[in-house]
Amino acid sequence: MILVSIITPSYNCGNYIEKTILSVINQNYKNWELIIVDDCSSDYSVQVITRYLSQDERIKLICLEKNSGAAVARNRGIEEASGRFIAFLDSDDSWHPEKLSKQVDFMLKNDYAFTYTAYHKVNEYGEYLSKVNIPLKTKYNELLKTCVIGCLTAMYDSHKLGKVYFPLIRKRQDFALWLKILKLTPYAYGLNEDLANYTVRSDSISANKLKAAQYNWYLYRNIEKLNIFKSMYYFSHYMIKGIIRSKFPSVAAKFNI
Known about the structure:
The protein has one domain: Spore Coat Polysaccharide Biosynthesis Protein SpsA, Chain A. Strands 1, 2, 3, 4, 5, 6, 7, 8, 9 and 10 form a ten-stranded mixed sheet that branches. Helix 8 packs antiparallel against helix 9. The longest helix has 20 residues. The protein is an alpha/beta fold.
C-alpha cells in the first residue's frame, strides 16, 4: 500500500482541528502520515494536536518559530513528506472515510499525476450547505478562468512530478500551486464524488468577495505574469462565474461552474 503524506497547516483552529484529525484517523486507507504544521497559534490548537501524537505515530507536529502564513507552513510539510502521494487538508476541513482509498485507486488505475474530487460545504456548526460538483478534467488555460480544485481534495504524485511547492504568497497560494502543477502535466483529473467537507467560516478570505477578487488579480499579474489583456480576459470569466455561483447556485451546480 502506497504511503500518502497529508499536509495540514494549522493556525488558531482549536475549535475545528480535532474533527480534522479524526477524519484522517478514520480513513479506511491506512498507509498515511499526517504532517501538521502549526503557524504560531495563540489559541489551544497545539494542545489539541498534542493529545493525538502519543495515540498515533502516523501523526507529526511541526511548530514554526514565527507566524509565516499558510504557504510557508504547507511547504515545510511538503519538505518533511515521505509519501509518494501528497494530499492537502486544512485544519477546519474534514474527509469522508473513503476519501483516500477512492482517490488513490483512481490515480493508480488511470495513471494520473494530479487529481481532485467533489466536496460539499458546511457551516461552522457542521450543517450541510451545498455540494460542489467538478469538471472531470481541467487544464491550465481553463483553470485560469476559475479555480475548480478544492485544496482539501487535491492530490499529486511526487514520483511523476517531483515535490512541487507553493508560491510564497499569503492568499490564493493553493490556486497558484495548481497552475504551477499544470505547467508540468497537461491535465488535472476530477473524481466527481463527494468525499470531503469544506467549512465556510465567516472570518475566511473566501467569505470576503472583494478581497478574494483582489488576490485573484494579483495572482494573474504577479505570479502568472499575464499581460493586462490576458489578465482582464481571465478575470472577467472569474467574475462572471462567481456571480453565477452566488446568484444562481442551481445553474452553477448543473454545469459544474
